[in-house]
Protein backbone atom coordinates (compact mmCIF):
# COMPACT_ATOMS: atom_id res chain seq x y z
CA UNK A 1 0.00 0.00 0.00
CA UNK A 2 1.21 3.49 -0.86
CA UNK A 3 0.80 6.71 1.10
CA UNK A 4 0.71 10.32 -0.05
CA UNK A 5 0.51 13.43 2.10
CA UNK A 6 -0.84 16.73 0.81
CA UNK A 7 -0.76 20.11 2.54
CA UNK A 8 -4.17 21.79 2.27
CA UNK A 9 -4.01 25.19 4.01
CA UNK A 10 -7.76 25.90 3.77
CA UNK A 11 -8.79 22.88 5.87
CA UNK A 12 -10.32 24.23 9.07
CA UNK A 13 -13.42 22.30 10.17
CA UNK A 14 -15.33 19.02 10.17
CA UNK A 15 -17.21 20.05 7.04
CA UNK A 16 -13.83 20.31 5.27
CA UNK A 17 -12.89 16.86 6.55
CA UNK A 18 -16.15 15.36 5.31
CA UNK A 19 -15.91 17.03 1.89
CA UNK A 20 -12.35 15.83 1.25
CA UNK A 21 -12.92 12.36 2.67
CA UNK A 22 -16.11 12.00 0.63
CA UNK A 23 -14.41 12.84 -2.66
CA UNK A 24 -11.28 10.77 -2.08
CA UNK A 25 -13.13 7.64 -0.95
CA UNK A 26 -15.02 7.66 -4.28
CA UNK A 27 -11.73 6.78 -5.98
CA UNK A 28 -11.36 3.05 -6.49
CA UNK A 29 -8.25 1.83 -4.68
CA UNK A 30 -8.23 4.43 -1.90
CA UNK A 31 -7.93 2.54 1.40
CA UNK A 32 -8.10 5.37 3.94
CA UNK A 33 -8.11 9.16 4.24
CA UNK A 34 -6.94 11.07 7.30
CA UNK A 35 -7.39 14.84 7.49
CA UNK A 36 -5.41 16.56 10.22
CA UNK A 37 -6.85 19.99 11.03
CA UNK A 38 -3.89 21.00 13.21
CA UNK A 39 -1.22 20.36 10.57
CA UNK A 40 -3.59 21.06 7.64
CA UNK A 41 -2.58 17.85 5.91
CA UNK A 42 -4.44 15.09 4.10
CA UNK A 43 -2.89 11.62 4.26
CA UNK A 44 -4.17 9.09 1.74
CA UNK A 45 -3.33 5.38 1.84
CA UNK A 46 -4.04 3.70 -1.47
CA UNK A 47 -3.29 0.88 -3.85
CA UNK A 48 -0.44 1.33 -6.29
CA UNK A 49 -2.78 1.87 -9.26
CA UNK A 50 -4.13 5.14 -7.83
CA UNK A 51 -2.30 8.11 -9.34
CA UNK A 52 -1.23 11.40 -7.82
CA UNK A 53 -3.37 13.18 -10.43
CA UNK A 54 -6.48 11.28 -9.29
CA UNK A 55 -5.89 12.21 -5.66
CA UNK A 56 -5.18 15.85 -6.45
CA UNK A 57 -8.33 15.99 -8.59
CA UNK A 58 -10.37 14.60 -5.69
CA UNK A 59 -9.12 17.26 -3.30
CA UNK A 60 -9.76 19.96 -5.91
CA UNK A 61 -13.24 18.57 -6.58
CA UNK A 62 -13.97 18.92 -2.86
CA UNK A 63 -13.20 22.64 -3.26
CA UNK A 64 -9.68 22.89 -1.87
CA UNK A 65 -6.27 23.90 -3.18
CA UNK A 66 -3.12 21.92 -2.47
CA UNK A 67 -0.06 23.88 -1.33
CA UNK A 68 3.07 23.58 -3.45
Could you please describe the fold and organization of this structure?
With 68 residues, this protein is an alpha+beta fold. The protein has one domain (2-61): Alpha-Beta Plaits (2-Layer Sandwich), CATH 3.30.70. The protein has 2 helices and 3 strands, in the order βαββα. It has helices at 14-24, 52-61; strands spanning 2-7, 30-36, 41-46. Strand 2 and strand 3 form a beta hairpin. It is globular.
Number of domains: 1
Number of strand segments: 3
% residues in beta strands: 25-35%
Estimated structural class: alpha+beta
Q: How many distinct helices?
A: 2
Please tell me the overall pLDDT. Answer: 97
Helix/strand order, N-terminal first = EHEEH
- The CATH topology label is Alpha-Beta Plaits
Please write the CATH class name: Alpha Beta
Low-pLDDT windows of residues: none
Biggest sheet layout: 3 strands, antiparallel
Shape: globular
Report how far the terminal alpha carbons are from each other. Answer: 24 Å
CATH architecture annotation name? 2-Layer Sandwich
Query: How are the strands ordered across the major sheet?
Result: 1-3-2
The proportion of residues forming helix, as a percent range, comes to 25-40%
- Radius of gyration computed on alpha carbons: 11 Å
Keywords:
3-stranded antiparallel β-sheet, 2 helices, Alpha-Beta Plaits, 68 residues
How is the secondary structure organized here?
Blueprint: E1 2-7, H1 14-24, E2 30-36, E3 41-46, H2 52-61
Can you describe this structure in just a few lines?
This protein is α+β, with helices and mostly antiparallel strands and 68 residues long. The chain has helices spanning 14-24, 52-61, and strands at residues 2-7, 30-36, 41-46. It starts with a strand and ends in a 7-residue tail after the last helix.
